[in-house]
Amino acid sequence: MRHTFAALITTSVLVTFLLGGCGGDDSSDSGAATTTTTTTTSASGSSSFCVAYSQVQSAGEAIKQLDSSSSANQLQEAVTDVTTSVQALSSAASQAGGQAQSSIQSAVSRYQSQLEGKSLSQRLATLGTAVGQLERSLSQTASQLNCNR
């Protein structure tokens, strides 16, 4: 019992640090509307996005599979996978260019804002929903970039 409690505390601290790493650039645009958009993306940007999007989908599935019988290691692995995949999306956004870049950055920012300022337990409770919304936000971009899963 004492070992399980210590493992849970250790995992909680680790998860807090991992989720804290999900934060991105705090700068934001002024909210001004863009009058022209470009849909041109590089092949490598499209490929990077498709790989990252697939990782988000897989991480989302892993989060959905967690329940009260899940171990601390399973929780830690699932949270790490989500963190890594969101970071990959952020990187892919800069390579995607045009409207795809804007869409990806916007979706990642909304995801991050859902988790900011919340306690660990609130973050964990919100994580599955936030990942699901991130996936839905990016589904049109994935379709436009011909990402097949």
Structure description:
This protein is mainly α and 149 residues long. It is built from five helices and no strands. The longest helix is centred in the middle third of the chain and has 25 residues. Helix content is 74%, strand content 0%. α2 packs antiparallel against α3, α2 packs antiparallel against α5 and α3 runs antiparallel to α4.
Provide key terms for this protein.
single chain; 149 residues; mainly alpha; 0% strand; globular; disordered N terminus
Q: How would you summarize the topology of this molecule?
A:
Blueprint: H1 2-20, H2 43-65, H3 72-96, H4 98-115, H5 120-144
Summarize this entry quickly:
With 149 residues, this protein is mainly α. It has five helices and no strands.
> How large a portion of the residues is in β-strands, by DSSP E?
under 5%
Oligomer: single chain
Topology as a string of helices (H) and strands (E): HHHHH
* Distance separating the two termini: 42 Å
Helical element count? 5
Give the helix/strand class: mainly alpha
Outline the low-pLDDT stretches.
1-41
Total strands: the figure is: 0
Question: What value does the Rg take, in angstroms?
Answer: 17 Å
The profile of the biggest β sheet is: none
Shape: globular
Helix content: over 70%
Overall pLDDT, averaged? 75
